[in-house]
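Table S4 entry, alpha-1,2-Mannosidase.
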Amino acid sequence: MNLDEDYEEAKDFVRTMQFDRTTEGFKTPVFEMTIRALGGLLGAYELDNDPMLLKQAKQVADSLSYAFNTTTGLPATHVDVNGKIPLPTDEICIAEAGTLQLEFKKLSQLTGDDKYTKLVENVSEILERAEKRHEGLYYSFINIHTGEFYLNSSLSVGAYADSFYEYLLKQYILHDGKELKFKERYIKSVEAINSKLVRKSYFGFSFIDTL
């Protein structure tokens, strides 16, 4: 877009940022920082190839990694970056737990350090093992201490769940089609959504409902 001067100014600002510390008492949201800060830095690095951007992305991920220090390895929704601890919580929605994989795995690919992949791969497997009412549909909330779904939470592709389903397909693409399990899980989910959640309105319009 020929906004080179603006871009360089933004990069100068990013260079000064310290992602391993924040305002005392601030609750850093893991999901938001992953998709926006970590994802943004990784995208910029792939376009720019400036090592500073990758270094800053790594600092973001390292600061967020403390959220995974829970009984199961499911991440807390918020982390105390200064204290390097997850903030107490009992539950996390599947959109928050299942929408970290692309960014953390991409960071592993770019740095050669598989610790980031291991963190989020564990989350994916916990979500897969947990009891489900319908194969391919995942309850919206899961207990981070037990790794079991809250069976009274909704089955939906709306709020609290939407991006989880997106990331199944995107992980298959990220791995160049070599990780067939993500393709298989995505297809199962699409089939289950079609058979269990698609409804017809009074006027004959199709829509996706919630169970």
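The first helix runs from residue 4 to 16.
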